[in-house]
Write a structure and sequence with these properties.
Number of helices: 10
Strand content: 15-25%
Number of domains: 1
Shape: globular
Structural class: alpha/beta
CATH superfamily: Luciferase-like domain
Largest sheet: 8 strands, parallel, barrel
CATH architecture: Alpha-Beta Barrel
Radius of gyration: 18 Å
Helix content: 40-55%
Strand order of the largest sheet: 1-2-3-4-5-6-7-9
Number of strands: 9
């Protein structure tokens, strides 16, 4: 099993440079911890500082190395030519493989702010992804060509949890990314459906990935000290069973359970608000990854 990180992108410090600095420091810690991949997310019109995917990832790649890296794009919110240009540029800057994570997105306010139509998002997603892939392959689409082209093929991970979305991931993606809100029983059901749809479409996925929001403490008490107030506050509306909270041994056991379900990659996001707790969690994630590998 591989363990990667999707860094949190929204912070609200008094100086916006501080939040960007935190993300840079976290990326360096992820590299030093020996984790397998690095990602950033995508969100718009948040009402507060949200460090946008292309520019922040471009800076983070300077801290990273030759392991896989990538960014999430909510494709119905973006002009396909712009995504192809950004992905081609980022892939050219990355020393290793580039992964395009993508999904249809949600939130009426976000769609309105970006001039997109939520009612058309499924169709817009499919058209955009087809266009982006053709542009990244060097084709001319609608009279447009983009560059630079990626130096190696870009892997496409499609996120989604509804049956139609899982079928779309099996039909159009190289891999599927399960959502962070799933409790283990739901994750088991969805990965079974994804495998079934891959069989129907004659596809062999490059990865079966799941996002997990985590806090790995020095021990159980330390983990609860950090995570329990966040979970008690109704963190993102999640069932706490969808998160991984505990000391290194307990976290290792939960990662192994996901591996037993068939997931090849766990993409973690630290729950902690404090930078020191976040960095400590990322450092311990490296030890957990090594323990799972053993």
């Amino acid at each position: 099993m591989r363990v990667g990180v999707s860094l949190r992108s929204r912070y609200d410090p008094p100086d916006v440079r501080t939040g960007a600095g935190w993300m840079i420091e976290q990326a360096a810690t992820v590299r030093e911890a020996g984790l397998d991949s690095l990602f950033v997310g995508d969100h718009h019109a948040t009402g507060g500082p949200y460090y946008q995917n292309a520019p922040i990832l471009g800076r983070l790649l300077a801290e990273w190395g030759d392991r896989p890296a990538g960014a999430l794009y909510l494709l119905p919110l973006w002009p396909p030519v712009l995504v192809a240009e950004q992905v081609g540029t980022l892939a050219s800057m990355a020393a290793g493989p580039f992964i395009l994570q993508c999904a249809i997105g949600a939130g009426a306010a976000q769609f309105e702010a970006m001039g997109a139509d939520m009612k058309r998002r499924a169709g817009d997603f499919e058209l955009a992804l087809d266009t982006i892939r053709r542009l990244l392959a060097g084709e001319e689409v609608g009279g447009a060509r983009t560059g630079p082209l990626p130096p190696a093929p870009v892997d496409v991970w499609i996120g989604g949890g509804a049956p139609r979305a899982i079928d779309r991931a099996a039909r159009m993606g190289d891999a599927w990314l399960a959502g962070p809100e799933l409790v283990p029983e739901q994750a088991a059901q969805q990965i079974a459906l994804y495998r079934e749809r891959c069989g129907v479409h004659g596809r062999t996925p490059s990865a079966l990935a799941i996002r997990r929001d985590v806090h790995i403490g020095g021990d159980e008490d330390d983990a609860r000290r950090v995570a329990q107030p966040i979970l008690d506050g109704g963190y993102r509306g999640f069932d706490p069973a969808a998160t991984i909270v505990g000391g290194p041994e307990a976290a290792t056991a939960q990662f192994r359970e996901l591996e037993e379900l068939g997931f090849t990659d766990v993409i973690i996001r630290p729950l902690a608000n404090d930078q020191a707790d976040t960095l400590a969690c990322l450092e311990r994630a490296g030890a957990v990854r090594a323990a799972v590998a053993r």
